[in-house]
Design goal:
Helices cover 47% and strands 6% of the residues. With 486 residues, it is mainly alpha-helical. The chain folds into 3 domains: 126 residues, 3-Layer(aba) Sandwich (Rossmann fold), CATH 3.40.50.620; 137 residues, Serine Threonine Protein Phosphatase 5, Tetratricopeptide repeat (Alpha Horseshoe), CATH 1.25.40; 167 residues, Orthogonal Bundle (DNA Cyclobutane Dipyrimidine Photolyase, subunit A, domain 3), CATH 1.10.579.10. It has a 5-stranded parallel beta sheet with strand order 3-2-1-4-5, with helices on both faces. The longest helix has 29 residues. Bound molecules: flavin-adenine dinucleotide. The site of flavin-adenine dinucleotide (FAD) has 28 residues, from helix 9, helix 11, helix 14 and helix 16.
Length: 486
């Protein structure tokens, strides 16, 4: 029998378009009460950071505005979902709570507890797939065990059919509905939450995300592979915060790429297409197909976290937990965090993170490799700094990226691959434009000296740029001995 009201509990899906659970709630019930809960377990966690929360609050305002245009209201409440949801259900007379599935260990525990509390009151709990293109159990080996290496995972993932986006629902709530009597609740400010933003971050919300997606298709996809490794060029999508908070869905992104490439190319491996292609198609697939691979990495790390939740406590491979990372001096960790290591490419990346809450992927790899394999600091220190500073901080992708960089993870880079920050800088920022943008002391230093200013004592004195905080060659030998013995 059809019950009149359902609650939709927004979490990492802060949009109306292509929201699987929201669309189902609107289809099956007469009225939907949209709810967002500010959960102190998340907002007061040690790894919370102002950029991520600022983007979230911005997106909540945008969501509320969009709902109002439809004649609906977003109810916002601070507190424990296990208490808040049953209360809202009782007051609205809702017959079901709809959510999009969360695969993180905390999210699963929380959802289980809420589901049990609701079921005791006879309220249905309805979960939908939304956060990923392929759910963690949808891409497993023939023997149904999870993949721990990316390449075979990706081979299977590519050929699994991806759901198309669903229609935006109509959510008007009748003026007599019991929902109307429930107070909306205020969206707090950052300072209400005890946070201060020092970075100039991207704006949140569905409209901004749609704009970034259109820009990707019009200007970036056709050259994605060629430009994605050059941090001085705006060559990537900058959709990570949108995908983290759900102001865009992965299906919308996939559908946009599929529209660009065409359905015959979108599921092909750009490195080894299983068909004979024209030169033009080969080139388009090489460029834009590489972007699809990035969406696959995102699903892969969600799957790793789902199947191996211990990665949030330690190394994927237990033997790496025995490593005693020797560097713990606060001044060294601070030099890395604040971008004062004396290695310009590293410092430029870390300052980009501090000022914008975002860092280019090449720099994430190089700064993470530097912290663990040259400074010899425990990767968990860097993992936490990134979570605190990134606007797109996502437990699964961040943990995956750090374990990959430290060579402790599922699909890790071999321990002896240590990115040399000077060589990386020469290769990916040959003219030094990226360094110049973020390290203004070096703004008038020419390439190649800008990659290694410590070679010239006069430049060092003149610019006041710090000398290298460690001896690269010595530390590299130490790292090989440390990591190789495990
Ligand atoms: C140490 C380290 C930490 C990282 N932490 C995060 C994090 O907290 N959150 C996060 O979203 N990404 C993280 N990444 C992955 C990647 O760096 C970012 O997703 C990317 O730089 C975001 O920029 P973009 O949106 O322009 O990416 P694009 O190149 O345009 O890629 C499109 C989308 O694919 C996904 N993606 C791309 N690369 C990866 C990857 N390696 N792993 C997982 N998903 C990927 C992202 O959702 C991204 O928005 C991390 C990588 C490393 C090496």
């Amino acid at each position: 029998m059809k019950s009149r009201v359902a609650v939709h509990w927004f979490r990492r899906d802060l949009r109306l378009a292509d929201n699987t659970a929201l669309a189902a709630a609107a289809r099956e019930f007469d009225a939907v009460l949209p709810v967002f809960i500010l959960d102190p377990r998340l907002l007061e966690a040690a790894d919370i950071g102002a950029p991520r929360v600022a983007f979230l609050l911005d997106s909540l305002h945008a969501l509320r505005g969009r709902l109002e245009k439809q004649g609906a209201r977003l109810v916002v409440r601070p507190g424990d979902p296990r208490r808040i949801l049953p209360d809202l259900v009782r007051r609205s007379g809702a017959g079901a709570v709809f959510v999009n599935r969360d695969y993180s260990p905390y999210g699963r525990r929380r959802d289980h507890a809420v589901k049990v509390a609701l079921r005791e009151k006879g309220v249905a709990w309805r979960e939908h797939a939304d956060l990923v293109l392929v759910e963690p159990w949808g891409c497993v080996k023939d023997d149904e065990t999870p993949y721990t290496v990316f390449t075979p995972y990706a081979r299977r993932w590519r050929v699994i059919e991806k759901c198309p986006p669903v229609r935006r629902p109509r959510l008007a709530q009748g003026s007599a509905s019991p929902i109307r009597r429930i107070a909306e609740g205020r969206i707090p400010t950052l300072s209400d939450l005890g946070l201060t933003l020092s970075a100039g971050i991207l704006s949140g919300g569905e409209d901004r995300a749609a704009h970034r997606l259109r820009r990707l298709v019009r200007r970036r996809l056709g050259r994605y592979r060629s430009d994605r490794d050059s941090p001085a060029i705006e060559g990537t999508s900058c959709l990570s915060a949108d995908l983290k908070h759900g102001t865009v869905s992965p299906r919308q992104v996939y559908a946009a790429v599929s529209g660009f490439l065409g359905p015959d190319l979108v599921d092909l491996d750009p490195a080894r297409p299983a068909k004979v292609l024209t030169r033009a198609d080969q080139s388009r697939l090489r460029e834009a197909g590489t972007f699809v691979t990035e969406l696959c990495w995102r699903d892969f790390y969600q799957s790793v976290l789902f199947h191996f939740p211990h990665v949030l406590r330690g190394a994927f491979r237990a033997r790496f937990d025995e490593i005693v990372w020797p560097e713990t001096r606060p001044e060294i960790i601070e030099a890395w965090t604040e971008g004062r290591t004396g290695f310009p490419f590293i410092d430029a990346g870390m300052r980009q993170l501090a000022r914008t809450g975002w860092m280019h992927n090449r720099l994430r790899m190089v700064t993470a490799s530097f912290l663990t394999k040259i400074l010899l600091v425990d990767w968990r220190v860097g993992e936490k700094v990134f979570m605190q500073r990134l606007v797109d901080g996502d437990v699964a992708s961040n943990n995956g990226g750090w374990q990959w960089s430290a060579s402790t993870g599922t699909d890790a880079t071999p321990y002896f691959r240590i990115f040399n920050p000077v060589l990386q800088s020469r290769k990916f920022d040959a003219r030094g434009d990226f360094i110049r943008r973020w390290v203004p002391e070096l703004a008038d230093v020419e390439a190649p000296l800008i990659h290694e200013p410590s070679r010239d004592p006069f430049t060092m004195r003149r610019t006041g740029y710090p000398p290298p905080c460690v001896d690269y060659a010595e530390r590299r030998i130490e790292a090989l001995a440390l990591l190789g013995s495990n």
